[in-house]
Amino acid sequence: MSETPMNTLQYRFDGPEDAPVLILGASLGTTWHMWDRQIPELVRQWRVFRFDMPGHGGAPAHPCGSVGELADRLLATLDELGVHRFGYAGCAFGGAIGAELALRHPHRVASLALIAASPRFGTADEFRQRGVIVRSNGLDPIARSAPDRWFTPGFAAAQPAITDWAVQMVRTTDPGCYIAACEALAAFDVRAELGRIGVPTLVLVGSEDQVTGQGEARTLVAGIPDARLAVVPGASHLAPVEQPAAVTDLLVRHFSTAWQPAPDATMGGGQSVLAAVPPKPVLGPSPAPVSPVAEIGPVEQPEAVPGNTAPDLYGAGMKVRREVLGDAHVDRVLAAADDFSGDFQELVTRYAWGEIWNRPGLDRRSRSCVTLTALVAGGHLDELAFHTRAALRNGLTPAEIKEVLLQAAVYCGVPAANSAFKVAQDVIREETTPQE
User: Fold this and answer.
1) Quick count: other Cβ atoms within 10 Å of Cβ 433?
2) What is the average per-residue pLDDT within 53-79?
3) Is 314 in contact with 346 (CB distance < 8 Å)?
4) Roughly how many angstroms between the first and final C-alpha of the chain, as a whole number?
5) Residue 363 contacts residue 293 (beta carbons within 8 Å)
6) HEC string of 236-260?
7) CB-based burial of residue 61 (10 Å sphere; 0-12 exposed, 13-18 middle, 19+ buried)?
8) Cα–Cα distances in angstroms (integers) from residue 250 to residues 240, 253, 288, 332, in the given order
9) CA 97/CA 190 separation, integer angstroms
10) How far is 148 from 157, CA to CA, in rounded Å?
């Protein structure tokens, strides 16, 4: 076990001290205990390192704002322990960390396994909406729905103790760290970079996974040059929990055979990393080439409208506009633009979003408070509706939005605030009601 400074992670080791290190990364809302049933077999060959994400499993609640920051904290932890080269297996969010490590620090990763993973997890809007739910209702709605996302119905019904464990695991997660992790996943997208993952990779997916299913898995296999696909029958999203024996067997076979030597490994006095791994039967041949379900290529950046004199402001403004208002809203507005209104949309994107919303003097929460007040004063109820949604996405709670509107009632007038309360109430009810 470990003492945990802010720039490192809570961790534990299992297995012999002189064995190669194998790291196991957990899914969002879970702890290192999701790997408990893999440990007895894995420690026969490896020194297994498990870690908890911030605010998970009692770990200190020091939120991370990106997958890259979590990978950096993991490397800082390993550096303190003198671990330089390792195999890595990660489930879902843990898989995102593994992909980040393989892309940014390829000399550290000897072999990779991505379980229930994706080069992009859903949409940014989906994860930011989850953050709104948690800010407004706490983690209980997320916890109660976890078994439906993680397990097949038959497993959940037959294993009530494990189902209860899953619910409690989510409930005891720090809400702020969970929200930060949602923001990190909202920004995660490595579709254009998969071809640069140069380590042997096993992509493993449950046959019944409805969260990150076989489509995402095949996209990874199609994009990563040295990748093989394994589908686990009868498993959903948390395949290591639901089908522990099958997952363990696949991990043992993969890491026993597909372990890339360190760049400076030698056949002379120093033992290579590869030589430290006992030989095992080779996995079957790589599957036939598969077609990705999503196009893998460079991520398109927003193009400046003809005549735009500041494309840098347009691109920056479009990024902020989408983050604050959501892709769906921005897409609707831009789709409705024509030759008559297109210049106005470009102006709004460049100046309102590229300059004002991007200024460092106020954070987005404060800017949402100012915007809501101004819209109440002007009686702009249509814009008040989507800026109420934006305020929730920017981190304001319903209680804080109420306080803004009460303040506006004093300075902007009771009739204006009365109309604003009706609009905001409908939006808040819609946005913060968990979907069954």
Assistant:
1) 12
2) 95
3) yes
4) 38
5) no
6) CCCHHHHCHHHHHHHHHHHHHHCCC
7) middle
8) 11, 5, 19, 45
9) 11
10) 11
Report yes or no: 237 and 149 within 8 Å, Cβ to Cβ: yes
Residue pair 220/293 in contact (Cβ under 8 Å)? The answer is: no
For residues 326-350, give the mean pLDDT.
89
In whole angstroms, give the CA distance from residue 351 to residue 338.
Answer: 19
Per the structure block, which two tokens stand in for 204? 């493993």
Residue 43: what are its φ and ψ, rounded to 5°? -75, -5
- CB distance 235 to 152 below 8 Å: yes
Strand extents, DSSP E, 182-301: 201-206, 227-232
Of the candidates 141, 118, 119, 144, the one whose C-alpha atom is nearest the C-alpha of residue 129 is 141
- Alpha carbon distance 50, 25 (integer Å): 7
- CA dist 419 and 183 (Å) reads 32
* DSSP-derived 3-state class of residue 190: coil
HSE-up (13 A, CA, CB side) for residue 256? 17
pLDDT at 308: 44
SS3 17: coil
The answer to whether the CB of 39 falls within 8 A of the CB of 48 is yes
Structure-token pair, residue 178: 């969970």
11, 51 Cβ separation under 8 angstroms: yes
* DSSP reduced 3-state for 164: helix
385: phi then psi, degrees, rounded to nearest 5:
-60, -50
The set of residues, in sequence order, having a beta carbon less than 8 Å from that of 164 and lying 6+ positions away, is none
Give the chain's radius of gyration (CA, Å).
24
Mean pLDDT score, 218-230: 94
Contact of 9 with 52, CB cutoff 8 Å: yes
CB-based contact 416:401 (threshold 8 Å): no
pLDDT tens-digit readout, 370-380: 999 999 999 99
User: Strand 21-25's sheet: what is its strand order?
Assistant: 10-14, 47-52, 21-25, 86-91, 109-115, 201-206, 227-232
Q: In terms of Cα–Cα distance, which of 142, 190, 138, 131 is closest to 364? A: 131
Question: Which residues, 6 or more positions from 214, have their beta carbon under 8 angstroms from its beta carbon?
Answer: 205, 207, 231
Which of 11-25, 295-309, 358-372, 411-425 is the least confident region? 295-309
Cα separation of 19 and 298, whole Å? 40
